[in-house]
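During the no-cost extension, the postdoctoral fellow (Dr. R.K.) reprocessed legacy sequence entries with the updated structure-token encoder. One reprocessed record is reproduced below for audit purposes.
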Amino acid sequence: MKILTAFVAASLFFISCNQIPAEFKERINGADSIAINYFNAGGKMDSVVAVKIIRDKKPIEELTSFIAQGEAVSPDKKSYGYNGSVHFFKNDMVVQDVYFCNSKECNLFVFSFNGKWHSINLSGDAASLLSSTQSK
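Re-encoded structure tokens follow.
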């Protein structure tokens, strides 16, 4: 019985560690604009090659949905670099930064919230939206 209790407790702990915090979802859901920075192929944050400002609600809601409803995954120990970042704004103030990696080796959204790093799978639809936004 003790083993079963320990197993259930450990399972719940690991599941809760990989869940996206509800407060994070609330924070990005009310964004009135976003800025997407696209980084150079090397994946370094100091090599921004394009910046797209989006104020249209439809793409903001789509991207927010992809992130908020994405599957949380355990953070990967490897560092692939990032392809870009998304900055969520409310009333002209940044409320959340989310980085993304979209390559053969890495398909993730990564963000820090309440002092902890979280990773979410970057879906094919999210990758298409980010790609189409960059080319506009």
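Residues 42 and 92 are 30 Å apart (CA to CA). The mean pLDDT is 82. The remaining legacy entries will be reprocessed before the final report is submitted.
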